[in-house]
Amino acid sequence: MPWPSRKRDKGAVADKKEPDAKIAKTKEETQDKGEGEKSTKPSAGSSKSGWKNWKKSKESDSGGEESKITYCHWLLKSEPESRLEKGVDVKFSIDDLKAQPNQTTFWDGVRNYQARNYLRAMKLGQQAFFYHSNCKEPGVVGIVKIVKEAYPDHTQFDQKDPHYDSSSRKENPKWSMVDVQFVRMTKRFIPLSEIKAHHLAHKADGGPLKNMMLFTRQRLSIQPLTQEEFDFVLSLEEEKP
């Protein structure tokens, strides 16, 4: 494959967009890549009207019944800008995915146990946000779908790969990956800063993004989303930035 080990979560750092993030240091070698929160918080009240309008629309569609909280969608982080890791460029943007045969590729290089478990929980046909991470402007750029459920990540056995794991055995592999396929670009780029503004507002008024893992477990490169979280973030593509 022309893009070896491009989605990885080893040696996590904060996104360039958020230099003031306070991220706890760890000796673990399997930490995820992600975004820290900005030290200057946007106004929590800026998204209340948007949440109320969205909620009213959803209640109208469902007769006012609240949806059962389950994780059925995902957010996958990948780096759109070049960065060498053990001599290998781990860059992989959504345009790189679109350039792959059948616009499909394997999501390799995950080396965090919780993120791996999320990969193993993915089901055929489920959709995920493709999220550009560790770049000047992180955020959601498109939608992909799971086209092959979890199977052993071959990069764990490749000594030339930056994510080689000498402790993993072929008879009992530690790490898994899935195959994803491009579905579409979002109608507009949805930046982390905008999603965060809604998250802060929803923490105050009980909106769908109040517990979004992008902010509660921001270092994870593979994150689950509830139906409500996915629907709300997707609704933002229809709004003017």
From TrEMBL:
Comp. bias intervals (Low complexity): 43-52
GO CC terms in record: nucleus
Keyword Phosphoprotein: yes
Keyword entries, A-Z: Nucleus, Phosphoprotein
Biased composition annotated in UniProt, kind: Basic and acidic residues: 10-40, 56-65
Key word Thylakoid present: no
CDD domains reported for this sequence: EVE
Annotated spans, Disordered: 1-65
Places the protein is found: Nucleus
Domain EVE span(s) in chain numbering: 73-235
Function: Specifically binds 5-hydroxymethylcytosine (5hmC), suggesting that it acts as a specific reader of 5hmC.
Protein name: Thymocyte nuclear protein 1
Gene source species: Eurystomus gularis
Organism phylogeny: Eukaryota, Metazoa, Chordata, Craniata, Vertebrata
Gene transcribed to yield this protein: Thyn1
